[in-house]
Amino acid sequence: MFIRINAYYTAFTAERVSDPFLNQPPTSTSIKDNGLRVSATAYVGTDDLVQFGFESSFPALEYQLVNTVGTPLTLKETIPSIYLWAQYQGKAGDFQYTVGFHSELTDLYYRGNGEGIFQPRISVSYLYAGNWRLKMSYGHVRQSVMTVSNEDDIVPAFEGWIAIPAKLPAQTADHFVAGIEGNLSENISLTAEAYYKYYGTLLAYNRGKIDAADPDYFPGTGRSYGTEILLRAKYMFIDFYGAYTLSWARLNNKGLSYYPRYDRRHHLNGLVSAELLKSFNVSLRWEYGSGFPYTPTIGFFDRLMLHTPIPADFEYEAGDPYTLLGAKNAGRLPPYHRLDLSLTYHVTFWGIQASAGVNLINLYSSKNMFYYDRTTGSRVNMIPFFPSVGLTLEY
Description:
Layout: E1 2-16, E2 27-43, E3 49-57, E4 60-66, E5 72-78, E6 81-92, E7 95-104, H1 106-110, E8 119-128, E9 132-143, E10 145-148, E11 160-163, E12 171-183, E13 188-205, E14 217-235, E15 238-253, E16 256-258, E17 266-277, E18 280-289, E19 293-294, E20 297-303, H2 311-315, E21 320-325, E22 331-332, E23 336-349, E24 352-361, E25 369-372, E26 379-381, E27 386-394
Antiparallel strand pairs: 1-2, 2-3, 2-4, 3-6, 4-5, 6-7, 7-8, 8-9, 9-12, 10-11, 12-13, 13-14, 14-15, 15-16, 15-17, 17-18, 18-23, 19-22, 20-21, 23-24, 24-27, 25-26
């Protein structure tokens, strides 16, 4: 039996400073977590093993914002979390299988129910023709935190992390995966997987909230599916990697069905790595991703605010500029693509392993969008061609 014990502390903070020109108030989010994780692996036979463990943590989430009437608000909560898990891995002939569960005890005292007690995990693989392995797996998962952001932004640059309120259900998803992997030849291997995920509970921020009686969030459902293909090849001292993903995602919130902003139809990665000398490595990587969805602007008008009932005030009021949006996430942003080159030299001296390298990012200086403000039409791109050098020492 092997036992591993980890004590950890992590901290994450993000902040958006105030920008009066863009009418953006300051906001910040932070997550601080500390805990203890114990995992064990017991070998009960030649091909059988049992893995189990527990984790106890105390994540503290804080989200500071300014609401639409200018009132500063702070959402802060610490949720003591306890997790248990166990799984059995075995083999029967050409079959390999893993059966287990994940248990989240937090719901017992935080939400007053036991819905997270049993979350099954199952996977089965079959060795076919001595060279190909067929795989299938299923898992039910839950999440007790969520992000909130302004989805009306063309490219949301800030997300706040919050704990899902105790009176609301945790977010859940069921994952189904099927795949095949094997060798096409002595130097070429192929891995292909298809997946389907059903999100039984997804919470969305209620951007239509008008008064205190309206809910802050409303539940919805969703689904995502697609396929992933990975091809690997080796010729002499050159390695080739090619990965392609075709995927769809769709959400349904209170009858509104739309593509979420992280829905990407095509994603392609290509890598060529060559060991020209014994200690000198050169790699060339190209990435392409089709555009993410966004809600397009279809017009502008001056909205009368009617601050006072005095006739002279509102009769001659010019109004404030207001953006009229089209169908939810009906548009697509430009695609993302870039080419990177890396040169690395490895050497060992006095028991120290050293790696010195040069990275050339975005070789052809592709203008990939980072942020776009729909009210001003200003666009900020990601970094253009950018060289960097690095040195790593390991002892």
